[in-house]
Amino acid sequence: MTDAKRIILVHGAWGSGKSWGPVPRILARAGFDVVTLDLPGHGDDPTPPGTVGLSDYAARIVAELEQGPPALLVGHSMGGMAISAAAEAAPHLVRKLVYVCAFLPRDGDSLLSLKKREAHTIGAAVRPGPEPGTTVLDPDIAVDYLCHDASDRLKAEVRTGLVPQSNAAQTDAIHLTEARFGTVPRAYIRCLEDRTITPELQHWMQDQSPCAENLTLNCGHLPQMTAVPELCDLLTRL
């Protein structure tokens, strides 16, 4: 498998590796070596989510990067924070960073500090989680922000796939340097109908941290559910 054929997919907040839907399977059929992670405290990972911070996400990604040649590292939503931290830790293991309607931070940013730049969106669905230091989403409210453009069947899948989320992972400030993170090529896929991270915030982040490639999809916040062929096509060309 060549370097250009390895792809690591990193999910967003309140999600897991399963949040990528059919995308891994389609990319694998196209000949790519695809890994979908469960970040610590998510999905099948047994770590209590209330104990997890952004550095734990980065360490999990770096451990996967070390298993093979430099990879296309793709982050969705909150996954943008995680892949940025991983690239700072191990830039030589990342072929390119790809942000899919994702948080693209500057040094010192946190997810929460970036989210505060826009009007209240997904926050309307956030509720206290099952253990201290976590939150969950009210699924009936969240789906209108996450996937208003999805079918009823897909909305049901999204509802059942939501998991508790670590607070610290969203409030931890990231440390990025030009000498490490800044050396890794970046691409951004902006979703023009996104109600969770608005297109305006996505555009602002792109302005603040320019990417070599800037692409768009006409969909909401979950292109891995509602714009699968289009998303897969872009990823195979990056």
What is the secondary structure topology, with strand pairs?
Elements: E1 6-10, H1 23-29, E2 33-36, H2 54-65, E3 71-76, H3 79-89, E4 94-100, H4 111-115, E5 126-128, E6 134-137, H5 139-146, H6 152-161, E7 165-166, H7 168-171, E8 186-191, H8 199-208, E9 213-217, H9 223-226, H10 228-237
Structure description:
This protein has 238 residues and is an alpha/beta fold. Helices cover 34% and strands 18% of the residues. Helix 5 crosses helix 6 (152-161).
Helical fraction equals 25-40%
Task: Give the number of helices.
Answer: 10
Question: What spatial form do the alpha-carbon principal axes imply?
Answer: globular
Q: Note the beta-strand portion.
A: 15-25%
Mean pLDDT: 96
Largest sheet: 6 strands, parallel
Q: Classify the secondary structure makeup into a structural class.
A: alpha/beta
Could you give the count of β-strands?
9
Distance between the termini: 16 Å
Oligomeric grouping of the chains: single chain
Q: Return Rg in Å.
A: 16 Å
Poorly predicted regions are none
The SSE order reads EHEHEHEHEEHHEHEHEHH
